[in-house]
Backbone:
């Protein structure tokens, strides 16, 4: 088994949650990978590129089953990857989703609101504060056009899912996550008294993650 962590939007493998999971899985002798989805440049980020990066990372590994942990936008990508199941040598056998952005709610994006989607289209890019880089970065309109091709909120997955969602999430609507979970045949949704970052719940998340992987054969 290999665990792949897909970080969120304007984040990186150095995020606190990625580091938390890396340390915990290392303690259990589990292979843990966290690709940098910003590469080669944040400005050209698309969902398609992230999926391709994941495919490339997995193709370099010996045959094994894969557990995907997706945080926020990484959850969006994880759901799409599990729905495709494109690599029989590396099947996605389980998903762990942290405040997953199963729908990209553009009206919640402060960077988009000033001119709306049409303003973004006309300018060709918007400016986004990149938390991992601690500076503003541009993001091309290609991101929006590409993301609109994907619809993870409508996916019905045939793998076990463990979903953590904060009730005070300021970025992802908890109601959308609840609706997504109800559509799945093997989903466990744990609602937490926390915000989008889920930083106050990491120990609980780890305990439930271990239980989930043990219960599903990990």
Residues:
């Amino acid at each position: 088994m290999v665990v792949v962590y897909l970080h969120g939007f304007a984040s990186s493998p150095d995020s606190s949650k990625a580091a938390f999971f890396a340390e915990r899985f290392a303690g259990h002798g589990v292979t843990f990978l966290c690709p940098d989805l910003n590469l080669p440049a944040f400005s050209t980020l698309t969902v398609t590129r992230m999926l391709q990066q994941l495919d490339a990372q997995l193709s370099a590994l010996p045959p094994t089953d894969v557990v995907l942990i997706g945080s926020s936008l990484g959850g969006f990508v994880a759901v799409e990857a599990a729905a495709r199941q494109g690599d029989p040598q590396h099947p996605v056998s389980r998903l762990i989703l942290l405040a997953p952005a199963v729908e990209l709610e553009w009206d919640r994006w402060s960077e988009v609101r000033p001119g709306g989607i049409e303003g973004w289209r006309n300018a060709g890019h918007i400016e986004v504060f990149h938390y991992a880089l601690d500076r503003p970065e541009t993001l091309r309109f290609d991101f929006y056009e590409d993301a609109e091709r994907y619809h993870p909120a409508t996916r019905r997955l045939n793998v076990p899912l463990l979903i953590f969602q904060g009730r005070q999430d300021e970025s992802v609507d908890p109601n959308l996550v609840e609706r997504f979970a109800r559509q799945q045949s093997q989903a466990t949704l744990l609602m937490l008294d926390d915000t989008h970052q889920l930083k106050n719940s990491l120990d609980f998340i780890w305990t439930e993650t271990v239980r989930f992987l043990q219960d599903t054969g990990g």
